[in-house]
Amino acid sequence: MPGKMLMKKPDFFKRSELAASLWAFRQEFLVVGLLSFLTNLLMLAPTLYMLQLFDRVLTSQNELTLLAVSLITLFLFGVLALSEWLRSRVLVRAGMRFDQQLSTRVFNGSFQAYLGASGSTPSRAFADLILVRQFLTGSGVFALFDAPWAPIYIAVIFFLHPWLGVLSLVFVVVQAALAWFGHRRTVAPSEEATKAGSETTSDLQSKLRNTEVLESMGMIGNLQKRWNRQYADWMGKSALAQGITHRITAWSKFIRYSQQSLALGAGALLVIDGQLTPGAMIAANVLMARALAPIDQLVSTWRGFVACRAAFERLEKLLDEFPEQDPAVTRVGPTGEISLQGVVASVAGRAAPILKNISFSVPAGTVVAVLGPSGSGKSTLARVMLGIWPEFSGAVLLDGLPVQGWNRLDLGPHLGYLPQDVELFEGSIAENIARLGEVDARKVIAAARSAGMHEMILRFAKGYDTPIGEAGSLLSGGQRQRIGLARAIYGDPWLVVLDEPNANLDDAGEAALLRTLRELKAKGKTVFLVTHRPGAVAVADRVMVLREGELVADGPRDAVLATLRRPPSAAPARASAQPACA
């Protein structure tokens, strides 16, 4: 056979990144398997001790034999305790490494998923990761490792007496059937209850973020009625799932208690008939209980297994849908040249696209004003250009390269973005301007000066170290917007996208914004300005007009504005107002 045969990983472990991460811990699981082998082997020690005690010590009445057998058994118990401690320790450490290995990936993936969901329920990926880790280090995994020993215990019971072996097989089949039945009946109700609970909690938290609106307009009562309906639905589904689980647990206990008593009764009948010794009767009862213990444990932890499986599938889907970007892919920072080719942007639940076949090319150093009525797609266009809109077709090229191909950590410092709804983060003013990174005082002050905030910040008691509260709650709307503007231009990014930057500004704030735009223009930065106010448009080199998701006008500022001022009947076609865009 030419060449050298290489061992390949099973296909199961190649199906996803999460499964491959588990496969990386195969050595740890092998060690746990070996320790489980030793543990279950030593579990025979009590059985052997009872056989020796009833059939040899009580018959011979030799105290020295009793002492020797007892000391040997105590030593074996010590080894048993040590092996159980070691396998628990190995699993706990493996679980911590598993968590550390995936926590960054889960953070990045859940962040991208939340960004792509356009404000939907935040991902519960970290809760899923903790659930998987806890199950991998809990009693459910031990039951899986101990289950293969059940046939060995049953074989020993057959060796003691065939009828006792048959009885143990009957109980194993009954327990296995109960476990299968429990799986069939509990999966769907448990998943529905978990989903209802997550939706109820998330919906309430999202509404409580607007407590001032709720309180001022007397909406608390209406909110409580909505929440009561959701909560009642959640409780009903939880009660249904718990009721099924409790019934299955009760049947499991009934079978376990019946097994213990029937095994002793069957053994006693065989002892009376002279086919079994009293020691073998007790030993068979212990072995039967030990053989059924893993199955009984699986039944009791079945709900945890179902939750873990669902969490594993959610994590698997998350990591597959949002793969890790190659850290080796690094590029020289962009110059700000951007072009769109046949871009169509859509959103789930809406039949018509938000943007329809948008194409343009903007050279570096151009200031572009984007105009249009509300709902025309201006904010969506801003997000598409930055590569943060999840559903679009066509091409968005930054310096001739697809924006999705850039490493976001490398690209981020070269981009500036001020969204329409400014979100600040708990921390100081300086930390927010510095984008939560290491504070460079020179760059922070430069950005604040450019945004016209420096003197205002110095009037605060702690200056740049002033805490702004959660989401900037201690600042006015205009102050939040100007700090957001300073954050957008921090570090001199080459492409700056400002979405309604003057929405909350007074005259002084708008004058500072115009100075900022002129400074960016003088530095050769590419700026996209979404606005309705004519003052900001005066700084632009080029104007684009969106209407119902279509680019209806695009060209030099004065030509496009002149076109917009003409009566509709006298307005020329869009092409006449457009410059040549390649």
Structure notes:
With 582 residues, this protein is an alpha/beta fold. The protein has 2 domains: 11-206 and 219-321, ABC transporter transmembrane region fold; 338-577, 3-Layer(aba) Sandwich (Rossmann fold). 61% of the residues lie in helices and 10% in strands. It contains 23 helices and 10 strands. It has helices spanning 11-14, 17-23, 26-42, 45-60, 63-116, 125-136, 139-146, 150-160, 162-208, 211-216, 220-272, 278-300, 302-321, 378-386, 408-411, 429-433, 441-450, 454-458, 477-489, 507-522, 534-537, 557-565, 574-577; strands at 338-345, 355-362, 367-371, 392-398, 401-402, 415-418, 495-499, 526-530, 542-547, 550-556. Helix 8 runs antiparallel to helix 9, helix 9 packs across helix 13 and helix 17 crosses helix 19. The longest helix is centred in the first third of the chain and has 54 residues, at 63-116. The radius of gyration is 35 Å and the shape is elongated. The chain starts with 10 loop residues before the first helix and ends in a 5-residue tail after the last helix.
List the helices and strands and how they pair.
Elements: H1 11-14, H2 17-23, H3 26-42, H4 45-60, H5 63-116, H6 125-136, H7 139-146, H8 150-160, H9 162-208, H10 211-216, H11 220-272, H12 278-300, H13 302-321, E1 338-345, E2 355-362, E3 367-371, H14 378-386, E4 392-398, E5 401-402, H15 408-411, E6 415-418, H16 429-433, H17 441-450, H18 454-458, H19 477-489, E7 495-499, H20 507-522, E8 526-530, H21 534-537, E9 542-547, E10 550-556, H22 557-565, H23 574-577
Parallel strand pairs: 3-8, 3-9, 6-7, 7-8
Antiparallel strand pairs: 1-2, 1-4, 4-5, 9-10
Helix pairs in contact: 3-5, 4-5, 4-12, 5-6, 5-13, 6-13, 7-12, 8-9, 8-12, 9-11, 9-12, 9-13, 11-12, 17-19
